[in-house]
Design a protein that fits this description.
Distance between the termini: 31 Å
Number of helices: 3
Order of helices and strands: HHH
Radius of gyration: 22 Å
Strand content: under 5%
Largest sheet: none
C-alpha cells in the first residue's frame, strides 16, 4: 500500500471515530471546524502531490496520455506517432 492510501485511510478512520463518539454522547474537545480544516489540508496536500509531474517520465507520460485522448476525440489529424513514443531513448 502506498503512503497516500495509508494517510487517507488514517484520516477517514479518525473522522469515523469522532463521529462514533458523538453518536454515543461523548464530547470531543475539538470543534468540527478544526477537524474539517485539518482533514481538508491533508486531503489537499495528497491530491496536489499525486497530480503533479515530479519526474521526467511522469511528464512524458502525461503528454502521451493527452495525445491519445486528443486523437481519440479526433482533434489531431495527420501522422500517428503513438507507436513510436519512447523508442528514441
Amino acid at each position: 500500500m502506498n503512503k497516500e492510501t495509508i494517510i487517507t485511510a488514517i484520516v477517514a478512520l479518525v473522522v469515523a471515530i469522532f463521529d462514533l463518539l458523538k453518536i454515543f454522547g461523548i464530547v470531543v474537545p475539538i470543534e468540527d471546524n478544526t477537524i474539517y480544516t485539518i482533514v481538508s489540508l491533508i486531503v489537499c496536500a495528497v491530491i496536489y502531490w499525486r497530480n503533479q509531474d515530479w519526474t521526467r517520465e511522469a511528464h512524458e507520460a502525461t503528454g502521451y496520455m493527452r495525445l491519445m485522448k486528443a486523437q481519440k476525440k479526433g482533434r489531431i489529424d495527420g501522422e500517428n506517432f503513438i507507436d513510436e513514443w519512447g523508442e528514441d531513448e
